[in-house]
# Entry
Amino acid sequence: MNKPSNIQSASCADAPVLKERGQREVFCGLTGIIWLHRKMQDAFFLVVGSRTCAHLLQSAAGVMIFAEPRFGTAILEEKDLAGMADAHQELDREVARLLSRRPDIKQLFLVGSCPSEVIKLDLQRAAERLTEEHAPHVRVLNYSGSGIETTFTQGEDACLASMVPGLPKTDARELLLVGALPDVVEDQAIGLLSDMGIGPIRVLPAARADGAPGVGDNTVYALLQPFLGDTDAELSKRGAKAIRAPFPFGEEGTTAWLKAIADEFGVDEATFDRVTAAPRARARKAISQAAEALRGKSVFFFPDSQLEIPLARFLTRECGMEAIEVGAPYIHMGLVRPDLELMPAGPTISEGQDVDLQLDRARAARPDLTVCGLGLANPLEAEGLTTKWAIELVFTPVHFYEQAGDLAGLFSRPVRRKEILAV
# Structure
């Protein structure tokens, strides 16, 4: 295994960050709509963009056969882009037609794109105007999913951040879980916390607008995803208190995340152990079985989803791998420091991307496993490198104890496949 020589430090939290600003290989923030529209049952995401935006969403989401999807695209035509038509009037007309046909919509998100930002279409003003027009039945919000400055998971961050200022105020002491997870995984998290006697527990985003959580000085929140930096900032502005911990990937991360919340709410050690002992044991066993092919192997992360740092912590600490480089599109140090503090020193920590330079480093290192986006995976496979599609780590349930073995399996399968093919 090849490994770059780095300044040795106690942990990765003390390591210098290599910052690169060059050509990137990432999806845009519109992609987040694919999981958000499934999570928020009475919301609709209207992308104000081009036909390319529409094709991206249709390709990413697949064909919706049994239900009409809760997203669409208001197409900007050539006359809109050339300033020959009043885009605001056309947008108002499209929204009115949508809401008349879909009375179930309670929240409407106007999602900015590269074309709408290039022509300086003011969707914030449009959202305020349309909220006044359609209140109280529908609330209209806006956020940017443009690929000009965002990577794909930032779409969720921008969406949730746009919701926070309008959340009702509450003085109740409540735990707020922040981030969109599959329902079955969210239920597991709430079940574990409830069994410890922690509550009330609220979730952002809520499944429906009338279930939106309140926020106030007594709200305590825990992030479920490491890419929610803007949402974190908005919640802090509302006076809520953050609980910082490693993110709940694997047995170790899940236990540390739960323990930080338990300590905040005064849960005693006996109760914590009683609730977590059995699922922790199952998680350790599942990880051990799935990670047999990973122990002693090297891994290289290209920046893609902002999950890279917690996942690298999981692979190095729980699966016996050695990280060569851990690249992330953006590093919210205040959010991922607990994960970095657990990671053994050695790997290069990089933020941003200059794809040609990073490809050179990966080719020189020849890692046993390369985690990267779809656009890089096939070329690297052709060069003999084993790859893992980073986007699968976002769309697959991987949080908390019961999914820990599946998470390890996502990384071990391509390694096993290569070993089998080599026989």
